[in-house]
Amino acid sequence: MRYAIFGDVHANLEALEAVLDKMSRDKPDKYICIGDLIGYGANPCECIDKIRALNPIVVAGNHDYAAVGLLNIDFFNSYAFKAIEWTRLQLNAQYIKFLQQTKLLYKGDNITAVHSSPYSPEMFEYIENNFDVQLALNEMKTSVCFVGHSHIPMSFSMTRGVVSFSSEPYVQVGKGNKVIINVGSVGQPRDENPNASYAIYEVEEGMVWIKRVEYDIEKAARKIIDAGLPDVLAERIKYGR
Ligand code: ZN
């Protein structure tokens, strides 16, 4: 069984198309979208359509819920706030219903998937320190949990009570160890590598690979500016910040 896991697309159609092209060549049996399909970028409806066409497992992100009135945006920074207001104007009833019906947590036989953290998905907290990692690991019933939210590809695990963090592009899963894997972001990477990010999980081999994909960043940036979205959102995708 081979899964392709991706998220934080953030309405970046150019990045999504490049990732879909590369992922399809990995021939996954199932796709998992880890949330934040929209917000920030210029093509929310097109991105939702392309993702739904994969018949994936989908969990919702904070931007998805914010755009459809399920999350208060008073605490969003001004750029995210403006982008959500703009995005709301693009979504018709069909898109709104889809996002409102998307759950926050997926618990499969061998995979947990959630945008932020499995211990309180509705709080949209970041997994940042040892304490967060322990809480998340305690909550997991599977050996692997895929997350997004920080837009930084990374893995977290605990061996004999010691939490470890890794940014290696491959991760061993199973062997009695629980691992949390952040698959990075398709549409707005923040690890100073502007290339889109996704993961492949080979269940039988117990291996996860994080892969990066070049895409037409200039085109995506131009569309953000042409749409009247904040300029900074076009700038940051060029630097992966
Ligand atoms: Zn995000």
Summarize the structure.
Helices cover 33% and strands 22% of the residues.
Helix content range: 25-40%
Please state the second-level CATH architecture: 4-Layer Sandwich
Q: Unreliable segments (pLDDT under 50, ≥5 consecutive)? A: none
Number of strands: 12
What is the typical, i.e. mean, pLDDT? 96
Bound molecules: zinc ion
Beta-sheet strand percentage? 15-25%
Placed side by side, the strands forming the largest sheet appear as 3-2-1-11-12-9
Give the tally of structural domains.
1
Rg over C-alpha atoms, rounded to the nearest angstrom: 17 Å
Name given to the CATH homologous superfamily? Metallo-dependent phosphatases
How would you sum up the major sheet?
6 strands, mixed
Distance between the termini: 34 Å
CATH class: Alpha Beta
Give a written overview of the molecule:
The chain has 241 residues and is of the alpha/beta class. The protein has a single domain (2-239), classed as 4-Layer Sandwich (Purple Acid Phosphatase, chain A, domain 2). Helix content is 33%, strand content 22%. The chain contains eight helices and twelve strands. The strands form two sheets. Strands 3-2-1-11-12-9 form a six-stranded mixed beta sheet. A six-stranded mixed beta sheet has the order 4-5-6-10-7-8, with helices on one face. The termini are far apart. The model has no long low-confidence stretch (mean pLDDT 96). The protein binds zinc ion. Zinc ion binds at residues 8, 10, 36, 61, 63, 149, 151.
